């Protein structure tokens, strides 16, 4: 999938830069100014898109530390008959505290942790396993995934708008300059970027709603019948638990050292919750 993503980027780059707006730089006048604006935006968004993408690909989403054990009353919840002590071999003390336990990894699970059958391990605050990044999306790379969606939507929207005049020209009676390869690449790039812009927009809207409620895709499915969610601390604090408190880092795939030091939830092991709902867990 990584090669497929890079292939789409390569075709788009050829169509926008080498075929259409690169040569327009030598035309002069308004056409040259338009080409400069498009190329600056295109390359800026492309850098951010690829930076976010490879940050998701190469960042471990978060795994349970060896010999991890919950602190007192950290992981209290209703006992699941499918993961109870009789079927999973939970130690007696863990069974008494109703601690969540992974039968496949044979270890306790921290809050909001789920087992990924593809990766074969428990992932901290797992959202989903994404085939496009060949990795799980979890506590440590969820922000990077959201930024990847954001910059992908902006980039594909820009390309769609930039190539729209050329696409319309295909259906006119005017003669279009360029070789068959250049024309085919322009047509293909417009269709691909339009399709990605529309599909990514849907995912982006969904994940914005998840961030606002401080939940993940898995949790949203599991808590459908739960009227209140213990981790929903308000939209501002929910947003900060994903993007951090330092505004300078909100739009780049990184966290400030100060945020990492003062916000343990960014490490994926400990999350603040509403005191009156501390017994709720999934």
Q: Structural class of the secondary structure composition?
A: mainly alpha
Please estimate the helix content.
Answer: 40-55%
Mean pLDDT: 88
Report how far the terminal alpha carbons are from each other: 31 Å
Percent of residues in beta strands? 5-15%
Q: What's the β-strand tally?
A: 6
Global Rg: 24 Å
Oligomer: single chain
Largest sheet: 2 strands, antiparallel
- Order of strands in the sheet with the most strands? 1-2
Write the layout of secondary structure elements.
Layout: H1 2-21, H2 29-58, H3 85-88, H4 92-96, E1 101-102, E2 107-108, E3 114-116, E4 121-123, E5 128-130, E6 135-137, H5 142-169, H6 180-212, H7 217-222, H8 235-243, H9 257-262
Antiparallel strand pairs: 1-2, 3-4, 5-6
Helix pairs in contact: 1-6, 2-5, 5-6
């Amino acid at each position: 999938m990584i090669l497929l993503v890079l292939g789409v980027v390569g075709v788009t780059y050829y169509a926008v830069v080498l075929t259409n707006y690169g040569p327009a730089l030598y035309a002069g006048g308004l056409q040259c100014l338009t080409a400069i604006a498009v190329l600056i935006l295109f390359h800026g968004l492309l850098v951010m898109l690829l930076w976010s993408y490879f940050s998701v690909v190469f960042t471990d989403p978060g795994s349970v530390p060896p010999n991890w054990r919950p602190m007192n009353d950290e992981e209290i919840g209703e006992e699941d008959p499918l993961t109870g002590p009789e079927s999973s071999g939970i130690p007696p003390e863990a069974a008494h505290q109703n601690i969540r336990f992974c039968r496949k990894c044979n270890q306790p699970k921290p809050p909001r942790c789920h087992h990924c059958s593809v990766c074969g391990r428990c992932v901290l605050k797992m959202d989903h396993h994404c085939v496009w990044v060949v990795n799980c999306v979890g506590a440590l790379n969820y922000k990077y995934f959201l930024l990847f969606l954001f910059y992908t939507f902006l980039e594909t929207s820009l390309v769609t708008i930039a190539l729209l005049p050329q696409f319309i020209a295909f259906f006119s009676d005017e003669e279009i300059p360029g070789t068959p390869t250049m024309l085919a690449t322009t047509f293909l790039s417009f269709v691909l970027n339009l399709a990605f812009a529309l599909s990514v927009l849907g995912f982006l809207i969904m994940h914005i709603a998840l961030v606002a409620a401080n939940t993940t895709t898995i949790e949203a499915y599991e808590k459908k019948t739960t009227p209140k969610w213990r981790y929903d601390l308000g939209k501002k604090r929910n947003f900060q638990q994903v993007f951090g408190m330092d505004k300078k880092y909100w739009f780049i795939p990184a966290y400030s050292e100060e945020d990492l030091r003062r916000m343990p939830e960014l490490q994926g092991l400990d999350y603040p919750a509403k005191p009156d709902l501390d017994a709720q867990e999934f």
